[in-house]
Amino acid sequence: MIAHLNGRLVEKSPTHLIVECGGVGYYVKISLNTFSKIGDDEAIKIHTQLQVREDAHTLYGFYSLSEREMFNHLISVSGIGANTAILMLSAMTSDEIAQAIVQGDVALIQSIKGIGAKTAQRVIIDLKDKVVKSDFATENIFTLDNTTQNDALTALLSLGFDKKRAEKAINKVLTDDQSVEDIIKEALKVL
């Protein structure tokens, strides 16, 4: 398996990249989310997943490891191939898909082009346990402008605590006008 490519970006389009590594140009299929995150810098590192079939060897690229992980979860579901998984990751981020799976939101998953009701239900049934165990942001408890909680969460994660447990602990101890240090100290008592 080719886990990642680290090289020079030769071509970039909404559906694919060409990355040159050691004199070889690799054609890499990507999602729209990956396309939007990749800048125009010449140096690039992209996480990849190689799909081998009888008629083709196709390389899929992802900006983040969580997107690649979600891709692998999606293609494990009966009825979802690699191209459908890329289409799903183009319509929604991996965290949004994970949240829809955990909440059992069939309508949201079904809103993606090419996904019917039965396939959406199958995605939820097959992946719910896997997604809960993974590190997707399935509980979005923090607002974007609240850096104090984010800093406290980052500190707890760097201490080795599980993300979900740390988020729940911070929620329990959170009051107005707390410093990051106070939140961490109180959360550590709960953990």
Descriptive notes:
With 191 residues, this protein is an alpha+beta fold. The protein folds into 3 domains: 4-62, Nucleic acid-binding proteins (OB fold (Dihydrolipoamide Acetyltransferase, E2P)), CATH 2.40.50; 65-133, Orthogonal Bundle (DNA polymerase, domain 1), CATH 1.10.150.20; 147-190, Helicase, Ruva Protein, domain 3 (Orthogonal Bundle), CATH 1.10.8.10. It is built from 9 helices and 5 strands. It has helices at residues 32-37, 65-75, 82-91, 94-103, 106-110, 117-133, 147-158, 163-173, 180-190, and strands spanning 4-12, 16-21, 24-29, 43-52, 57-62. A 5-stranded mixed barrel has the order 1-2-3-5-4. The longest helix has 17 residues, at 117-133. The chain is globular and about 55 Å long. The N and C termini lie far apart (39 Å). 27% of the residues are buried.
What structural keywords apply?
191 residues, alpha+beta, OB fold (Dihydrolipoamide Acetyltransferase, E2P), DNA polymerase, domain 1, Helicase, Ruva Protein, domain 3, 3 domains, five-stranded mixed β-barrel
